[in-house]
Design brief:
The protein has helices at 29-42, 72-81, 101-119, 140-149, 175-178; strands at residues 2-4, 8-14, 17-25, 48-55, 58-62, 87-94, 122-135, 152-159, 163-169, 187-197. By secondary structure, the chain is α+β, with helices and mostly antiparallel strands.
C-alpha cells in the first residue's frame, strides 16, 4: 500500500477561480474529520471546501455545495487511481466569477488533486502489530538485546518513571512469547494494528 509521507499543498488558477489542494496523511475517519473541520475554519471565507479521503476504516467525499459528482468524486478517484491510502484531500475554491460548467469542475478538482499528489513524497506502508514493552531502567540492556536479536523495530521510546518501548514486528509472531523468560521484568502487551511506513 502507498501513502504520502507528509502534508503538501498545491495551488492552481482556472478561469480566475483559485483552487488550493491540501493533502494530509491520515490513519482513520476521526483524523480525517478533524483535518476537514480545521480547514473549514481556516478557509471559512472560501466559496467551497470539497473533500475526499481513503483511510483504514473507510472512505468518503463531499461536494460542499458544488453540483453533485463534480468535486468530491473526481477527487477520490484521483486518490484511488494513484492507489493511495490513509490520505485526506481538501480542495478549497475561491470563485473567480466565471462558471466552469460540470465538465470544467470535474477537470479542475481532478487536476488540483493530481498536482498535489505530484508534489507529495509517496511511501510504501504495511500493517503491523504494535506491542508495548514496559520495564525498569536497569533492564534497558536486556530489552535492547532482545529487540535487536528478534528483528523488532522500536517506533517510540518513552523514559518516565519506567521505560516504555513501542515495538513492531515484520511478521505476525507472538511477541509476548519472546519476552516470557523475563516475566516480571519486562511487561508486554498488545496495543493495536497500525499502517506504518515499510520497515
Amino acid at each position: 500500500m502507498k501513502t504520502i509521507k507528509e502534508a503538501v499543498q498545491c495551488e492552481i488558477n482556472i478561469k480566475k477561480s483559485q483552487f488550493i489542494c491540501s493533502l494530509f496523511p491520515t490513519k482513520n475517519k476521526k483524523e480525517s474529520k478533524e483535518i476537514i473541520q480545521k480547514l473549514n475554519e481556516q478557509y471559512s471565507d472560501a466559496t467551497h471546501n470539497c473533500t475526499a479521503y481513503v483511510v483504514s476504516d473507510g472512505e468518503g467525499f463531499d461536494d460542499d455545495g458544488e453540483p453533485g459528482g463534480t468535486a468530491g468524486k473526481p477527487m477520490i478517484n484521483v486518490l484511488r487511481k494513484n492507489e493511495l491510502h490513509n490520505v485526506t484531500a481538501v480542495v478549497t475554491r475561491y470563485f473567480g466569477g466565471i462558471k466552469l460548467g460540470a465538465g470544467g469542475l470535474v477537470r479542475a478538482y481532478s487536476k488540483s488533486v493530481m498536482e498535489a499528489v505530484g508534489e507529495a513524497e509517496i511511501v510504501e506502508i504495511e500493517e503491523y502489530s504494535v506491542y508495548e514493552l514496559i520495564f525498569e531502567y536497569s533492564d534497558i540492556k536486556i530489552a535492547d538485546t532482545e529487540v535487536r536479536n528478534n528483528q523488532l523495530t522500536a517506533i517510540n521510546k518513552e523514559y518516565s518513571d519506567k521505560v516504555i518501548y513501542e515495538v513492531v514486528s515484520k511478521d505476525d509472531r507472538d511477541i509476548e512469547q519472546i519476552f516470557e523468560k523475563y516475566s516480571g521484568k519486562i511487561k508486554v502487551s498488545y496495543k493495536n494494528k497500525q499502517f506504518l511506513e515499510k520497515i
